[in-house]
Amino acid sequence: MGKRILVVTTVPADTSELREALSDADEIRVVAPAADVSFLEWLTNDEDEARREAEEAAERVAAAADDARVEVDRTSQDTDAAQAIPDALRDFPADEIVVVTRPGEDATWLEDETVRAALEAHGIPARHVELTTA
Q1: Cα separation, 9 vs 116, whole angstroms
Q2: What is the mean predicted confidence (pLDDT) over 18-38?
Q3: Strand 69-72 vs strand 96-101: parallel, antiparallel, or unpaired?
Q4: CA 94 → CA 33, 41, 132, distances in Å?
Q5: Across all residues in the chain, what is the average pLDDT?
Q6: Which of 43, 76, 91, 110 lies at a C-alpha separation of 20 to 30 Å from 85?
Q7: How far is CA 113 from the centre of its chain?
Q8: Domain 4-130 in this protein, CATH class
Q9: What is the DSSP secondary-structure string of 101-126?
Q10: CA 105/CA 102 separation, integer angstroms
Q11: How far is it, in rounded angstroms, from Cα 84 to Cα 54?
């Protein structure tokens, strides 16, 4: 069995920016939380646009995967990005976690939480791919 990468992406990325990060993967599970939501939108459950963006983000990861087998976790488009990681790891024993977010201060409050959760927990090597443009 080859390398298994769990990709947690919170933003639609350019395929070329993802290709290098995924080049050594044989299997990829994509988790795309609806993270582009303000605190007020989150409180009022106004998350439809964020869910559409999450779906696009997942599709772009799949397009960048080249020869790897890709599975998009369609149940992961919730706003709890940090919880999506342990949920996905229950049935996908990843060798590495790759978290894709907006650059620097463009990252949302939910993205910050996701990166922290991936890098601090689970005992799996994690990489943060911060996009060069939002």
Answers
A1: 14
A2: 83
A3: unpaired
A4: 18, 32, 26
A5: 76
A6: 43
A7: 12
A8: alpha beta
A9: E--GGGS-HHHHHHHHHHHHSTTS-E
A10: 8
A11: 13
Contact criterion met (CB below 8 Å) for 3 and 25: yes
| CA 18 from centroid of its chain's CA atoms | 11
Whether pLDDT at 109 is above 50: no
Q: Are 103 and 130 in contact (CB under 8 A)?
A: yes
Q: How many residues does this entry show for the chain?
A: 134
Domain ranges in the chain are 4-130
Q: What percent of the chain has pLDDT over 70?
A: 66
Flag whether pLDDT at 26 surpasses 50: yes
CB-based contacts of 113, cutoff 8 Å, min separation 6? 81, 82
Cross-strand partners of 4: 27
